[in-house]
Amino acid sequence: MQRPRMMVLIEGDQAKGAETEIIDYLTSKEFDIVDPAMVATLQQRDSALVAKAIAGDPVAAAKIGADNGAEYILVGKIAAAMQNNDLLAGSGMFSAQGQISARVINCSTSRIVASKNNRSAMAHISKEAALQGAVLKTAQKLMDTQLFEKIVSSFQDQVNNGQTIEVTIQALDGYQQQKQVSSMIADGDAVQSVSKRSFSGGALALTVMYRGTVDGFCESVDGKKVGDKKLAVTDVIGNRIVVVLK
Fold it and tell me: Does 28 share its domain with 112?
């Protein structure tokens, strides 16, 4: 089954460790992952938008994912704290508990695909190691088979039944040419419908319902001839595509 391109955005106590654990799991399942360095830059640059996403706003989360080329985004918040454990009294061991809440969101529809909470405890002779271990164990338990299957089945359903792709075609020479390009796209394999949003300044904006992946749509359009010129896909961000007639 096909996998969506994923972005992972975790904030909270020792979030980096939890984020790495989740990314390692997704990578082992053959997911393509948005570069964590881009995520770190985003957290500093767009802190207000990130805060909205972490607080539970699916539209904000979807925007973050789409702007960074993700099809799905996993957003979560993790907390870790020391806890009293009578069983460890006098043993020299420390006990910590980690708790995470996470949601997976479709970046093209802002729909919540899956939601899950989890907590785990860890004991160690070092307070820092106990906290870190609790975080890692919590992240590991979050990414189980059930959550993985929800992500994959949701994406596969979108591929099979169609998804919305926002397409902008630039450098068009007049009304007749934009009609020609619109018809060409509508006649493509796996294209279910095409709606024109606007045409201004040589730029045609279309909403395309496509049964397949964004990459599949791009491959079907890139290189198509229009008179003595060709369509060239120049930008792909989430479900938003820019095509130039050259």
Answer: yes
Beta strands 72-83 and 94-106: pairing type? antiparallel
> 1 in a domain, yes or no?
no
Cα Rg, the chain, nearest whole Å = 22
113 found inside a domain: yes
- Decide if pLDDT at 202 tops 90: yes
Location of structure tokens 């975790």? 10
Between 106 and 122, the more confident residue is: 106
Task: Supply the range of the domain harboring residue 21.
Answer: 6-159
> Is the distance from CB of 72 to CB of 113 less than 8 angstroms?
yes
The enclosing domain of 203 has a CATH number of 3.30.70
Assigned domain for 145 exists: yes
Per residue in 68-119, pLDDT tens?
A: 989 999 999 998 887 877 676 667 788 888 889 999 999 888 889 999 988 8
What is the CB-side half-sphere exposure of residue 133 using CA atoms within 13 A?
14
Give residue 90's pLDDT.
65
**Window from 154-168, 173-187, 222-236 with minimum mean pLDDT:** 154-168
C-alpha–C-alpha distance, residues 61 and 203, integer Å: 28
Task: Report the distance separating Cα 189 and Cα 129, nearest Å.
Answer: 55
Q: What is d(CA 50, CA 15) in angstroms, rounded to the nearest whole number?
A: 14
Domain shared by 127 and 181, yes or no:
no
Determine the pLDDT at residue 191: 95
- Structural domain contains residue 184: yes
